Amino acid sequence: MENKINWKNAIIAGVLGTILFDLAGLVLAGQWWDVPALLGEKTGLGLAYGVFGHYSNGILLAILYSGIAPSLWGPNWVRPLTFMAAETIALVWFFMFPLLGAGIGGVNMDPMVPVASMIRHLLFAVPLIFLVKVKN
């Protein structure tokens, strides 16, 4: 059976996942839109660009997950968690943190930053669990 991307559900999951990510940032760090603010600052394009880029990235991640979900192992509730954990390690800990001067895995930062980053990304996966289903 062919498994096609449900674009509407992927986009909704990306937006909802990014909202959960931001809510977790508020709870864990006491900051709302910390990532968009950082994006806007580092690019020099301001907060509006940072918010647009942040939410666009969330939508893109959900679409990418939707495309590769059939290739991942496990039941529908495990696949998004696996994807987001791998994405966080590969793209945040090994790419973004070093790019921002935080070192691999954020070793130059508070030790809770990589933990909070993983928690936030795993919460992003929650809407994927409910909105992106793999047909077996």
Write up this protein:
- The model has no long low-confidence stretch (mean pLDDT 95).
- The protein has 136 residues and is mostly helical.
- It contains five helices and no strands.
- Helix content is 71%, strand content 0%.
Per-chain topology:
Blueprint: H1 7-29, H2 34-43, H3 46-68, H4 79-99, H5 112-131
Helix pairs in contact: 1-3, 1-5, 2-3, 4-5
Taken together, the total number of domains comes to 1
Structural class: mainly alpha
> Mean pLDDT, as a whole number?
95
Largest sheet: none
Fraction of residues in H or I helices? over 70%
Order of helices and strands: HHHHH
Count the beta strands: 0
- Weakly predicted, low-confidence segments: none
Strand % is: under 5%
Descriptive keywords:
mainly alpha; 136 residues
Describe the structure concisely for a colleague:
The chain is mainly alpha-helical.
